[in-house]
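DM between two lab members

TW: hey, do you still have the Protein ImuA entry open?
JB: yeah, one sec
JB: this one, 251 aa:
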Amino acid sequence: MSQTLAELRETLRRIEGDGYQRRPSLPFGVSAIDGKLANGGLRLDALHEVAGARPCLGDDASATLFIAGIAARAWGPVLWVVKRRDLFAPGLYQAGLAPHRVLYAEARDDAELLAIMEEGLRHRGLGAVIGEVKRAGLAATRRLQLAAEGGRTIALLLKGHARDGADPLGQPSAALTRWRVKSAPSAPLSFEGVGRARWRLELVRQKGGEPFEMLVEAPDETGRIAVPARLAAGPAPGRGADAEDVARATG
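TW: and the structure you got?
JB:
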């Protein structure tokens, strides 16, 4: 009996695994990240949530640029739904998202914003649909996930901090992955100036995989983030903080 059950489990695992791998995905191009994601990247026909780690402008900007880098590497036009006109196009361009690819829509409130996102996902002619909300309940995220399934349009929901101080990712959600982005000290330079921005990137939850956290560098002009070269090469003797980052990055 035990052998029969083991064979049945293995058969189910192969069936489920093959079906999951057939889903289209968008890899980060960073093995330390893609190797930890259940689909080898972000599933395109799915909803993904991102939030700044703290209620501050620095983390909000970092989370926005993280999303911009993902959208930059997606195919086709990008629909970005906002409630106020505060996006800085040159900053998005620096993260690889060219202005001519972005279609902006302005919503009156979260409910209208989520409805516009749902329509954009069902259109099937967009590479990414992005929205910025304070709150989105489980029912709303399920609708976005269902609207995305079967297509190639990635849904990215940027969740802001509410005034009550609640965790933006604390509510139940149908999102396949949930990320926190925290700004970190930039790379030191041998001359006066500011180096490439760095973030503490945390995958809080993912369907079919484990959470993780690592230090990364912000997107370049192609929308690609990177693991700092010194960390990717391995920890240097006597550098405890870097050793911890490598351990998180390599598992």
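TW: got it. The radius of gyration is 19 Å. Residues 64 and 193 are 23 Å apart (CA to CA).
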